[in-house]
Specification:
alpha+beta; 7-stranded mixed β-sheet; 6-stranded antiparallel β-sheet
């Protein structure tokens, strides 16, 4: 390579390599050389074909020769080496025209392959280029309201923005990082991030993802995530990683290609050297029979693994197609696993339901003085049992991401509650929260800090040592005046138990999602939840799920997921909101998480992130996975068929070398075209594919007819 650079060979090769115009000029000159002997005016010019070939061959041969030598020096035998060997061997055999055609068509096919590959890729570079490098950092603490006409700001790099700082976003600008509207309101679009085409209104308190485009108005945005954790950076990172994480088939083809190319060279040499002895072929050929060396070159070209190498292109195409709709995959292997799964499990709260719980009632059930008679004793709670319980629960749940905690905090807003401070705090995933409090009098001693726990009814009842008390609490819950239909949480403060009742509603469109998964995807569907039986059954009935597993702790969910994955065959898909279900998401064959609410742990262990807070894309994702694996299988079969149908006639002497190249490269382009079909909307059956094709043809024909009729109508006769 040093010698090539020293003599300028490398510079010339870089200028000519895979240059579309140069390849077209070379191919045009070679075609002219091919037709010269058959055109009367040119047939008299005897040296013209040789002159055309002498000009055209170096245009494609200089870079091919250098690339082949570099690969051979590195111990690599790949498609570039095979093509260069075949082309330059043709020169020594007196078939320089065919050698030039071989390289010109190979280069054009390679350029076309790269074009199709780039068309299939979700261009994250566009997101990077359109994203602002700087932000307008306001010189304010954010504690006071500011006037838009009197703003003081500093232009800073987006990487330097800190959480809780305030930035100005003007009309037409992109929001640099994730945040929430602190002041002002506007309309934004996130179509380039999540595929959601409808612009959305954002006002004070609403969350905005990084990368969202501000269409109108001016906003002050409070930064909630740094650049490293923002939505846009996450999309770019996961999409690039997903395209780099190769599925099993692609890794196998990469390894197979190296050995396969060496086998092709060995077989080509065997045909060239042994053909005269085994089949009585001449070495160099004559007017009657093609030579064994020519046949060996034909085999080398026809059996090259170009088409096989691009067969997995559908994986990258599908990942790009999903990313454009706000579905991020952590690699092509996820598509294989997803297409093989036979079961799917949904978390309930925040996944099948909206997760926006509303506190409907607060009910003292155990340990309160005169609680059974509905009378509040001043010596029991301050100012009353419901207010004290709400104040304690709100203090313990401050800063939480759990739907129940958010519902408690929302219910406490604007109420006159006693001041409660949390002195120590411990979170027990799947059970509840334990804390010691000041501001609440302990029953045994005024100086002692009160101990409080909030969580599931099962957890709170288990804290009471005697079976009698535990059973009394459970019985009081069963006999609640508000019935068993609500989501329930219990609070224990100094041996006093209060029951919170919450209402949750199913997400819009969930029934259609479940119907599609059951009837079209043919999946076994189940619901896994930590809620009690009555609440779980109410939601399951509303969303049409028959198999329900309730009262599950995180470890119970984990064990259930493992059991179903083992017994079902093919694996299990787990769909959750990323709150308290990270172990189940990690154990599932494929974990799908709603990324807007998910914890960092859930995002790390999940295989698929849904940027839209919407389950309607789950069937699309599964259909896309099945479409992709089907396209990859079709591409592999198509590649092998093209190799066989090009190699066999070539060895038997029926095909000239240039036609062998045409068949070989045509097969490669067919595989590319088949792979980018992964950009099309997926279907569930061959019948749907046919209907989709017919509808597409109808739309195309009607569009053409409408265009021609409009043209005729606008044409004014002279």
């Amino acid at each position: 390579m040093r010698m090539a650079r020293a003599i300028g060979w490398a510079d010339v090769a870089d200028a000519l390599r895979e240059h579309l115009q140069v390849c077209c000029i070379s191919l045009g000159l070679l075609l002219m050389a091919a037709v010269c002997p058959h055109v009367a005016p040119l047939s008299s010019v005897g040296r013209l074909p040789a002159a055309l070939i002498a000009v055209a061959f170096p245009l494609v041969g200089v870079s091919a020769a250098l690339d082949a030598l570099v690969d051979i020096a590195d111990g690599k035998i790949n498609i570039h080496v095979l093509m260069a060997l075949a082309a330059f061997a043709s020169i020594f055999m007196g078939n320089s025209l065919e050698g030039g055609l071989l390289l010109a068509m190979f280069n054009l096919a390679h350029i076309a392959e790269e074009y199709f590959t780039s068309k299939s890729m979700y261009d994250v570079r566009e997101l990077k280029e359109n994203h602002p490098e700087f932000a307008l950092l306001l010189d304010t603490s954010g504690d006071e309201s500011v006037h838009f006409s009197n703003l003081s700001y500093t232009k800073v790099p987006v990487h330097d923005l800190k959480v809780d700082s305030h930035i100005l976003v003007r009309a037409g600008e992109a929001v640099p990082v994730d945040g929430e509207v602190y002041q002002g309101s506007s309309t934004i679009t996130i179509e380039h991030l999540t595929g959601e085409t409808k612009p959305v209104e954002r006002t004070v308190g609403d969350a905005i993802p990084g990368g969202a485009r501000n269409l109108e108005g001016m906003m002050i945005v409070k930064v909630t995530k740094s650049w490293e954790d923002s939505t846009l950076n996450r999309i770019v990172q996961l999409t690039e990683e997903g395209q780099l994480n190769k599925p099993k088939l692609q890794r196998w083809l990469d390894e197979f290609g190296e050995h396969y190319s060496k086998v092709v060279v060995a077989l080509s040499l065997a045909v060239a050297l042994l053909g005269p002895f085994l089949f009585k072929w001449p070495f160099f050929g004559n007017s009657v029979c093609r030579g064994s060396i020519y046949r060996g070159l034909g085999l080398m070209v026809a059996a090259s693994p170009c088409a096989l190498a691009v067969a997995p292109l559908a994986y990258a195409t599908a990942i790009s197609s999903l990313a454009s709709k706000g579905i991020l995959l952590k690699g092509g292997h996820v598509l294989d696993a997803l297409s093989a799964c036979q079961s799917i499990a949904f978390d309930k709260t925040g996944t099948l339901t909206t997760g926006k719980l509303m506190c409907k009632a607060i009910e003292p059930i155990h340990g309160h003085l005169d609680a059974s008679h509905g009378v509040n004793d001043p010596s029991c709670c301050t100012p009353n049992c419901e207010s004290e319980a709400l104040a304690v629960a709100a203090a313990m749940e401050k800063g939480t991401t759990h739907p129940i905690g958010r519902a408690v905090l929302n219910h406490s807003v604007g109420r006159d509650l006693p001041v409660v401070a949390v002195e120590s705090f411990e979170s027990l995933p799947g059970r509840g929260v334990v804390a010691t409090l000041s501001g609440i009098k302990a029953r045994n001693s005024e100086n002692e800090l009160a101990k409080a726990s909030i969580g599931s009814v099962e957890y709170i009842s288990s804290l009471y040592r005697t079976n009698g008390e535990s059973e009394q609490i459970k019985q009081a819950v069963k006999c609640s005046a508000f019935g068993p239909e609500f989501v329930q949480a219990a609070l224990s403060v100094d041996k006093k138990v209060t029951l919170f009742h919450f209402e949750d509603e199913p997400r819009p469109g969930v029934c259609e999602v479940i119907y599609t998964l059951r009837e079209k995807a043919k999946l076994r569907i189940m619901m896994l939840t930590g809620d009690h039986e009555s609440s779980a059954a109410r939601v399951a009935k509303a969303v049409c799920i028959d198999e329900v597993h309730f009262s599950l702790k995180p470890e119970d969910k984990l064990n259930k997921v493992k059991a179903v994955s083992r017994e079902g065959g093919g694996g299990l898909i787990m769909v959750g909101d990323g709150i308290n279900d990270a172990p189940a998401l990690a154990a599932a064959t494929v974990g799908i998480v709603l990324a807007q609410r998910a914890s960092a742990t859930a995002v790390a262990v999940a295989d698929i992130l849904l940027l839209q807070d919407n389950l309607c894309v789950v069937p699309f994702c599964i259909a896309k996975a099945r479409q992709t694996t089907s396209l990859v299988k079709q591409s592999v079969a198509l590649a092998l068929t093209c190799i066989v149908f090009a190699a066999l006639p070539s060895v038997l002497g029926f095909l000239p070398l240039w036609l062998t190249v045409l068949l070989h490269e045509g097969g490669t382009l067919l595989v590319c075209l088949n792979s980018i079909r992964a950009l099309n909307p997926p279907t569930w059956s061959w019948g749907d594919d046919v209907r989709q094709l017919i509808d597409g043809l109808k739309n195309y024909i009607s569009a053409k007819l409408n265009r021609s009729s409009k043209f005729s109508a606008n044409t004014v006769p002279l």
